[in-house]
Amino acid sequence: MKKLNILLLTFIISLLVISCSKLKDELPTPIEASVHPEGFSKVGNSDFHGKFIQQHAWNLKMCKQCHGTNYNGGTSSVSCLSCHNNPGGPEGCGTCHEIGKDLNGNTSTAERGVGAHTVHLLGNSKGKIVSCAECHNVPADIYQQGHMDTEANSEVMFNSYFANIKTNEPVTSDYDSQLQLFSPNPTYNSVNLSCSNTYCHGYFKNGNLTNAPVWNNSSSNACGTCHGDPTKATLAEKSLPKTTANGGTHVNVLTCSNCHGGVVNSNLQFVDASKHIDGKLNVFGNDIDF
Ligand code: HEC
Ligand code: HEC
Ligand code: HEC
Ligand code: HEC
Ligand code: HEC
Ligand code: HEC
Questions:
Q1: Residue 121 lies in a domain
Q2: For residues 44 and 264, what is the distance between their CA atoms, to the nearest angstrom?
Q3: From the CB of 121, is ligand 3 less than 6 Å away?
Q4: pLDDT for res 31
Q5: Do 277 and 271 form a contact (C-beta atoms < 8 A)?
Q6: Which end of the chain is more exposed for a tag (fewer CB within 10 A), N or C?
Q7: In 10 A of CB 93, how many CB atoms?
C-alpha cells in the first residue's frame, strides 16, 4: 500500500500544480508525468503491473479507484478490459491461472505449482479429464475466503467425487464376497508432494492400494502403478490387476481388449481414454460400478 500512497500523492500534487499554473478552462488532462512506472505495461519488466499486484497480496481493489469499479476506465480513462477481455475482466480466473503455468510463471513440471496439472486438465491420452474441483475447493469469486490466502502453498483437498469412489460394494453385479469393501481415504502430503489412498491411482478392487504418486514426478503414472506391476515386461503383464496369485480376483488372461475393447485395443492403446479412470469399469461394452 505504501508505494501506492506515494503514487497517489504524486498524482494529486500533479493535479494541483497543473490547476494552479494553467487557466481554469484548460482541463488537467493529459497529465504529463505518468502515475505508474515505465515498465508497468511491459511483461517481464520488474515494474510490470502483474508483479506489482502479486507483491501487494493480489489486491486488485486498489486499481478500481482510478480505473473504475468495473475496471472499464474510470477517471484514468484506461480500461483494463481492453487487454483483459475475458469474462470477469482482470478478476476472471484466467488472468492469474493458466494451465501449464504457475502463479510465478514457472512452466517446468518439476515445479510444484506446475506439476501434473496439464496431464490432469487437458486432453489426456490416458484417462478422463479431471476438473479443478476434484483436488481443490474452487472459489466462486476471487475474494472468497480461503482463495489467495497467505498460506505458502495451495490447499489440495479431495472433497469431490473421483478420488473417493468406493468399489466392491455388495450391491454391484461384480461383487466379490471374499474381498473387502474398498473405501478410499484420499490424502495429500504437502511435504513430499504425494497423494495416496485415491480411487484414481489404485485404491480400488484388485488395484494397488498403497500406490502414492508424486505430483511433480512424471514417472508416477507409468503403466502398472495403479493396477498391475510396473516391473513386468509387457504392457499386458504390467497392467493386469491382482489375480488369485496375489490375493485378488481378476481373471488371469492377458488379452485385455477381448473384454475391455471399449477402452483399449489389442495393442493396449487407448481407443477411448475418456472411459479410462472415469469411475466406471468398462467391460463387455458396458460401463458399470465394480
Ligand atoms: C495494455 C494491456 C493491459 C492493460 C491495460 C492491463 N493489463 Fe493486466 N496484464 C496484461 C498482460 C499482458 C499480463 C500478463 C499476462 C501473462 O503473464 O501471461 C497482465 C497480467 C495481469 C494480472 C496477473 C498477474 C499474474 O502475475 O498472474 C493481473 C491481476 C492484472 N494484469 C490486472 C490488471 C488490472 C487490474 C488492470 C487495470 C487496472 C490491468 N491489468 C490492465 C495486460 C494488461
Ligand atoms: C491514482 C490513480 C490510479 C491508480 C490507483 C491506478 N492507476 Fe493505472 N493508470 C492511472 C492513469 C491516470 C493512467 C493513464 C496513463 C498514465 O498516466 O500512466 C493509468 C494507466 C494504467 C495502465 C496503462 C499504462 C501504460 O503504460 O499505458 C495500466 C496497465 C494500469 N494503469 C494498471 C493499473 C493497475 C494494475 C492498478 C492497480 C494496481 C492501477 N493501474 C492503479 C491511474 C491509476
Ligand atoms: C488476481 C489473481 C487471481 C485470480 C483472478 C484468481 N485467482 Fe485463484 N488463486 C490465486 C492465488 C494467489 C491463489 C493461492 C495460491 C497459493 O496458495 O499458493 C489461488 C488459488 C486458487 C486455487 C487453488 C486452491 C486454493 O485455494 O489454494 C484454485 C482452484 C483457484 N485459485 C481457482 C480460481 C478460480 C475458479 C478463479 C476465478 C473465479 C480464480 N482462481 C481467480 C490468484 C487468483
Ligand atoms: C489432480 C489434482 C489437481 C487438479 C485437478 C488441479 N490441481 Fe491445482 N494443485 C494440485 C497440487 C497437488 C498442487 C501442488 C500443491 C503444493 O504445492 O503442495 C496444486 C497447486 C495449485 C496452485 C498453486 C500453485 C501455483 O502457483 O499456481 C494453484 C493456484 C492451483 N493448483 C490451481 C488449480 C486450478 C485453477 C485448477 C483447475 C484449472 C487445478 N489447480 C486443478 C492438484 C490439482
Ligand atoms: C476374460 C475377460 C477379461 C479379460 C481378458 C480382462 N479382463 Fe479385466 N475385468 C474383467 C471383468 C469381468 C472384470 C470385473 C471383475 C470383478 O470386478 O470382479 C474386470 C475388471 C478389471 C479391472 C477393475 C478391477 C477389478 O479387477 O475389478 C481392471 C483395472 C481391469 N479389469 C483391467 C484389465 C486389464 C489391464 C486386462 C489385460 C491385462 C484385463 N483386464 C483383462 C474381464 C476381463
Ligand atoms: C493413474 C492410474 C492408472 C494407470 C497409470 C493406468 N490405469 Fe488402467 N485403470 C485405472 C482405474 C482407476 C481403472 C478402473 C476403471 C475406471 O475408472 O475406468 C482402470 C481400468 C482399466 C481397464 C479396464 C477398463 C476400464 O474401465 O477402464 C483397462 C483395460 C486398463 N485400465 C488398462 C490400463 C493400461 C493398459 C494401462 C497402462 C498403459 C493403465 N490401465 C494404466 C487407473 C489406471
A1: no
A2: 45
A3: no
A4: 46
A5: no
A6: N
A7: 15
